[in-house]
Each structure stands twice: as structure tokens, then as C-alpha cells.
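It is worth pausing here to work through a concrete case rather than discussing structure prediction in the abstract. The textbook approach is simple: state the sequence, then state the predicted structure, then interpret. We follow exactly that order.
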Amino acid sequence: MVTGSLGADRAVATLGQLKGGAQKLGQMLALVSDGLPPELGQRFGRLFAEAEPRPFDELRAQVPECVYEIEPVPFAAASLGQVHRARWLADGRPVAVKLLYPGIADALRADLDNLDTAALPARLVGGAAVMLSGLRESLLAELDLRREAAHAQTIAAALAPWPRLRVATALYADERALVSPLLEGPPLHRVMAPDGPGPANPLQVADDVVAAICGPVFSRHVVNGDAHPGNLLLLPDGLGVVDFGAVAPVPDVPGLEATLDRLLAGDRRGALAGLGIRAAALEAELQPLLGPLSPGAWDFGHDTLMADLGEVKRRNAFALREVPFAADRLPLVRATLGLHHTLRRLGVCYPLGESLGRLRADARTHSR
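Step two, the predicted structure:
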């Protein structure tokens, strides 16, 4: 295993040589980097930023005929493609055109062959090996833009109880392009510290982020595993949600709700099992990591959970490496990591458990 600063440098260099898989892996490393020494977290965190765009001439042939006045300079570039402003032919409204990179499927398959080697330093954090194994299986599915368009409809319906959240459902999709109404606003990761000054009302943004990530779990029993700060746009009256390649069902939501009720009552017994984590002999050491779901507010601004998890792993290296959670929980785990990362960067003292309880009530009221 490669460790330390040299290991991080090697991993970042390796990831920089990859294509689509590198950015997805980089995002996951950034989300768990709170458990690494600061200098390592900063190196991995750089991979959370947008990818370098491709020249428009390489993608021009993929532009669908249903748009016009497409801007050659993209306003966003991600792991699998980039996004350009244009106008919808039918009525002239502004739209966002997502274009997959030519040859990205072959490049991604090559990345997956190298993923295990590149991900070695991520195993400094317990459970990362299991997570990255599941990530391999989901990446290729994210190349299906027609599937992503259907997922956008699902998430739009799932977020209907929360009017501050906006989803730009697709107007058109084929195997190489996806067209959606344009949502104007900076990605949240550019606004939050250390990249930006922070939002004017961080507690309101925290409410919106929790609803965007966790609301669909209660309303439609689905989760968007890619609802991280790069895919949440800060709008004047809420948040815009984009990128739906990693939407998946959440198993046993009634069990999750029952576990939440126990945690809000201050009872952590059996909570890890209720959340789908079979901790065995490490139950007592891992239970304190459930603190954010306890009654009252949790100080995310001074949160040390990922570092605490790293310390538990150092004391129980082989045991924690094997802490299992089922593969069908992986999208929810990804979303949870994204939520924790976002609340930490917002620096809020926030009652997460109580907020989840309110979301569940909202979902039930809306379904009547």
C-alpha cells in the first residue's frame, strides 16, 4: 500500500492521467478526505473541481438539431462530458446541452482496469474499498443519457414537496446529448469556503441541501448518489439540482425510518444494523459516529467524524476494513458522504436528525 504525502502525490498523478473514472474517483476521495491529514485532503480535494473542457470542434457533430446558437465555450465540464448554453429551437428558451466526450466509453473502461491501483490510498479510510468497488459497477451506467433523462423526471417528482428545489427535467436525450432548461446559478462548491465567501444564509442552504439529498428517500424511496456540491446550484430562491446519472432505489426505507425514530429518542442500540451496517465487535466504537442523528444540533463546523473514523480504523485496521454494507446501499452511502462534506463546509451547527424527521412529515403530507 502507498501511504503518506508521496502516496497522495502518486495517486493524484495517476488520476490525472485517467479520463471519466478519474473525476468520479476524485470526487469520492474529496468527500472522504476529511479523515486524511490536511495536506493529503487538499491534494485529493483538487480533483473535486470541474474537469478540463474539450475543444468544441471535437463535440460539434454531437449537437442535436433541436437547439441553436450553442456557445462553443462550455460553462461546465465534468467527468464524462461538458455542458454548453444554447437555445431550444421550438421556442427560443435558454437551455443547457450536455455532450458526452467522444470515446469516453472506451476511456472509462480503461480507467476501470486501473481503478484498484489508483484507489489504494483511499483505503486509508475504512469502508472505502467496498464503496469504490460499487462505484466501478455504476460508472458505465452513467453513460446512458436517456436513462439520466428518466432519472431527472423521477427526482423532480420526488422533490415536489419542497418548492425551493428546482430540477431541470430533460427536453431531449439521445446516446450522445441531453438538453435541459437552463438553471442559472453558481455550483455550491464555488460558493462555500474555502473556495468562496460562503452563502449569506448557511442554515437555509443547509435545509435546502438536506432536502435535495434526503427528501427523495422519504417521498419516493430513491436517492441521487451524485447530489454533491458540484451538482447543486445556488439560486436566488433555493437550489437547482443537476446531473442524475446515479439515481437508485433505497432498500428498506421503513427500517431506516424506525432507526431514525430511535436515534431521535437518544437510543443508539442496534442503530448501525438499522442503517445497514453490520459492525459486529466494533459496534461500541462506531456508535459515536451517529452523533449528528442524535437529538439537538450538531456542530458540523467543528466536526471530527471522518478523523474519528480514521482513528478507529488505525486501532482496528483489519476489522474495520471488513465492515460490510450491502451493494444496494452504496448510492445512499455516496449521498450521505456528500451531505456530510457539504454541511462541514457550510460550517453550521445543525439539527440533522430533526430535519430528517421534518422531511419525512413533509413527504407524507404531500402524498395524501
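Step three, interpretation. Residues 202-220 form the longest helix (19 residues). The first strand starts at residue 67 and ends at 68.
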